[in-house]
Amino acid sequence: MTQAAQGYYARHIFFCLNERKNGEQSCAQYKAQEGFDHCKSRVKKEGLAGPGQVRVNKAGCLDRCAGGPVAVVYPEGTWYSYVDQADIDEIVDSHLKKGEVVERLLLAPDVGR
Ligand code: FES
Questions:
Q1: Domain limits of the chain?
Q2: CA-CA distance, 64 to 26, in Å (whole number)?
Q3: 3-class SS at 78?
Q4: Cα(11) to centroid of ligand 1, in Å?
Q5: What is the pTM of this model?
Q6: d(CA 70, CA 62)
Q7: Where does residue 23 fall: left (phi above 0), alpha (psi -120 to 50 degrees), or beta otherwise?
Q8: Which residues have C-beta atoms less than 6 Å from ligand 1?
């Protein structure tokens, strides 16, 4: 695979931090900011952050609000629904570090807005 095809980061995780102003269910109601902050700090602490490795980014609504809080990992396109910091730790230790999907946290394929 060429360097261009591999991409700048080996893995990229996006956290929805959106709050829907109309009161409908949204990720911000379920401590999404805390999840994002914890992931960012864990990735840094583990030495995983940076080019060729892992990037943790904020996102707006990913349109899968009913499963919130949600995060998605690329290039695999793996969707997760997490609850607490232990869940984030498992995503970091298994998926972001070793490429092993955390089956128990997978978002069901039919979950949408
Ligand atoms: S509010 Fe998070 S996916 Fe829509």
A1: 3-105
A2: 9
A3: strand
A4: 21
A5: 0.93
A6: 8
A7: left
A8: 16, 18, 20, 26-27, 61-65, 68, 70
Place of tokens 């969707």: 79
C-alpha 19 to ligand 1 mean position (Å) = 7
List the residue whose alpha carbon is closest to atom 1 of ligand 1: 26
CATH architecture of 3-105: 3-Layer(aba) Sandwich (3.40)
Specify the amino acid at residue 23: G
Ligand 1 center to residue 65 CA distance, Å? 4
Tell me the per-residue pLDDT of 10-21, one tens digit each, with 9 for 90 and over: 999 999 999 988
Task: Give per-residue pLDDT as tens, 23-65.
Answer: 889 999 999 999 999 999 999 999 999 999 999 999 999 999 9
